[in-house]
Amino acid sequence: MTKDIATPIRTQQIMAKYDLKVKKSLGQNFLIDPNILRKIVGQANLTKKSAAIEIGPGIGALTEHLAREAGKVLAFEIDQRLLPVLEDTLSPYDNISIVHADILKTDVQAAIDSELAGYDDIVVVANLPYYVTTPIILKLLLEKLPIRGMVVMLQKEVAERITAKPGTKAYGSLSIAIQYYTQAEMALTVPKSVFLPQPNVDSAVIHMTKREVPEVKVIDEDFFFTVTRGSFVQRRKTILNNLQVAMPLGKEKKELILKALEEAEVDPTRRGETLTIKEFGLLADKLYAYFR
Ligand code: SAM
């Protein structure tokens, strides 16, 4: 096995060799602790029959650990400067494809079709750039890619929101959007000392397993998400008050909102943060009948 990229000395050597200054604007915080990498990759349960998709390989710290465990790694990196670096650091591995692309603008399904044909078990594993964690996760879920799940490092505060259960302060429309598609669990909290440079915020790793069918069946997904987002706009207000703002002409049509709440057996004085995803699903379907 080759020497790990993710040690402080090797990372500094690589950066010096290529005169590489990290770009904070691209969320570049490189991992320098092989133990954390082993733990992250362990969460993904990879075998040589699996493929891993990585977003932001950086200088290859996580990529090489994935290449050791998976049959194939497909990695998307936005920063062109890192391509020659990756070619060098990952040269011992023949099962990695690096694509120079902004993950938010690229056709991931097309890349899967061309690079990962024959792999039925595909997992996203990434130390995400923190300035775009939520858009990346939502894009990968909304595009309904053929993936088993995702293991990602992100800001601890966002990890708490994504994995939050009803009745907690962190629970909100982001928890619902992601838990609608996945079972999301906190896997590890990670100290700042494992990064170079160290980020300003605490980090965590979460594990999201895609559900075979969404957590609740709804008539219209977009409408369901409109209802959930609208129910948290003013967290301290009741669901009735929030829906009066969120639904078209909601103030004039208060009676219809009350009727839908009654049909869904949701007390109008409750706050959005107390409703489960199933309750939101039923409520959205009842509201849909009056406000679609
Ligand atoms: N995987 C490496 C590691 O763990 O050491 C680097 C992780 S670093 C937190 C995030 C990486 O994502 C950087 O390499 C950065 O250039 C890349 N990146 C930032 N925005 C991106 C985007 N929109 N699409 C693809 N890669 C991106």
Automatic annotation (TrEMBL):
Q: Which InterPro entries match?
A: KsgA/Erm (IPR001737), rRNA_Ade_diMease-like_C (IPR023165), rRNA_Ade_Mease_Trfase_CS (IPR020596), rRNA_Ade_methylase_Trfase_N (IPR020598), rRNA_adenine_dimethylase (IPR011530), SAM-dependent_MTases_sf (IPR029063)
One cellular component (GO) term of this entry: cytosol
Q: What is this protein called?
A: Ribosomal RNA small subunit methyltransferase A
Instruction: Tell me its EC number(s), please.
Output: 2.1.1.182
Keyword Transmembrane helix on this protein?
A: no
Q: Where does S-adenosyl-L-methionine bind?
A: N29, L31, G56, E77, D102, N127
Spell out the family assignment given in the record's similarity comment. Belongs to the class I-like SAM-binding methyltransferase superfamily. rRNA adenine N(6)-methyltransferase family. RsmA subfamily.
Q: Which HAMAP family match?
A: 16SrRNA_methyltr_A
Domain Ribosomal RNA adenine methylase transferase N-terminal: from-to ranges: 36-212
What PANTHER family is this protein classified in? DIMETHYLADENOSINE TRANSFERASE (PTHR11727), DIMETHYLADENOSINE TRANSFERASE-RELATED (PTHR11727:SF7)
Q: What is its main location?
A: cytoplasm
Name the enzyme group at the top EC level.
transferase
Entry function: Specifically dimethylates two adjacent adenosines (A1518 and A1519) in the loop of a conserved hairpin near the 3'-end of 16S rRNA in the 30S particle. May play a critical role in biogenesis of 30S subunits.
The reaction(s) annotated as catalysed by this protein in its Swiss-Prot or TrEMBL entry are: adenosine(1518)/adenosine(1519) in 16S rRNA + 4 S-adenosyl-L-methionine = N(6)-dimethyladenosine(1518)/N(6)-dimethyladenosine(1519) in 16S rRNA + 4 S-adenosyl-L-homocysteine + 4 H(+)
Protein localization: Cytoplasm
* Domain of life (superkingdom): Bacteria
Keyword annotations from UniProtKB, A to Z: Cytoplasm, Methyltransferase, RNA-binding, rRNA processing, S-adenosyl-L-methionine, Transferase
Quote one Gene Ontology molecular function term.
RNA binding
